[in-house]
């Protein structure tokens, strides 16, 4: 298990990828994300979906939960918080591919969805198999 410090949360734990020779997708649904509006201080609620193809390590789920909870008292614009979470996870995991989608609840009659992606320079998605 690896422990890595991020600017926001003191610990994001990882563990060794059990199948590093294979591309596979891990999808994590986080339905109770909360941060604060930086203008009003009102709570913002979102559902996060994290999808990634691990390289050498995977994120430990309890550590991810605690990291996500650290945003509950932070003011952050939707675009900024989505990209910050992605940046922190990329720094820790160095994945082959990662996508974070944040679907924020309605605020003032407006819904916001922010999707941010990362691809390692060397990684290409597998080609579909052509059957004869």
Automatic annotation (TrEMBL):
Biochemical pathway: tRNA modification; tRNA-queuosine biosynthesis
Top enzyme class? oxidoreductase
State the active site. Answer: 37 (thioimide intermediate), 44 (proton donor)
- What keywords sit in the KW lines? Cytoplasm, NADP, Oxidoreductase, Queuosine biosynthesis
Which reaction is the catalytic activity of this chain? Answer: 7-aminomethyl-7-carbaguanine + 2 NADP(+) = 7-cyano-7-carbaguanine + 2 NADPH + 3 H(+)
Keyword Cytoplasm appears in the UniProt entry: yes
Q: Name the EC number(s).
A: 1.7.1.13
Which InterPro entries does this chain map to? GTP-CH-I_C/QueF, NADPH_dep_7-cyano-7-deazaG_red, QueF, QueF_type1
Per its UniProt entry, which superkingdom is the organism in? Bacteria
Cellular component annotations (GO), alphabetically ordered: cytoplasm
A Pfam entry, by short name: QueF
Q: Where in the cell is it found?
A: Cytoplasm
The biological processes this protein is annotated with in GO are: tRNA queuosine(34) biosynthetic process
Task: State the Gene Ontology terms under molecular function.
Answer: preQ1 synthase activity
**What positions does the entry give for substrate binding?**
59-61, 78-79
Q: Where is it mainly found? A: cytoplasm
The family assignment reads: Belongs to the GTP cyclohydrolase I family. QueF type 1 subfamily.
Describe the function of this protein. Catalyzes the NADPH-dependent reduction of 7-cyano-7-deazaguanine (preQ0) to 7-aminomethyl-7-deazaguanine (preQ1).
This one is known as NADPH-dependent 7-cyano-7-deazaguanine reductase
């Amino acid at each position: 298990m690896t422990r890595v410090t991020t600017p926001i949360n003191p610990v994001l734990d990882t563990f060794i990828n059990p199948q590093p020779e294979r591309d596979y997708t891990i999808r994590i649904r986080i339905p109770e994300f909360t941060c604060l509006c930086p203008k009003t201080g009102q709570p913002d609620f979102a559902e996060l979906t994290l999808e990634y193809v691990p390289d050498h390590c995977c994120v430990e789920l309890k550590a991810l939960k605690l990291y996500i909870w650290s945003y509950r008292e932070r003011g952050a614009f939707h675009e900024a918080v989505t990209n910050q979470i992605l940046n922190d996870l990329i720094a820790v995991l160095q994945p082959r591919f990662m996508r974070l989608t944040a679907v924020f609840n309605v605020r003032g009659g407006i819904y916001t969805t922010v999707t941010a992606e990362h691809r390692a320079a060397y990684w290409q998605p597998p080609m579909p198999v052509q059957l004869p």
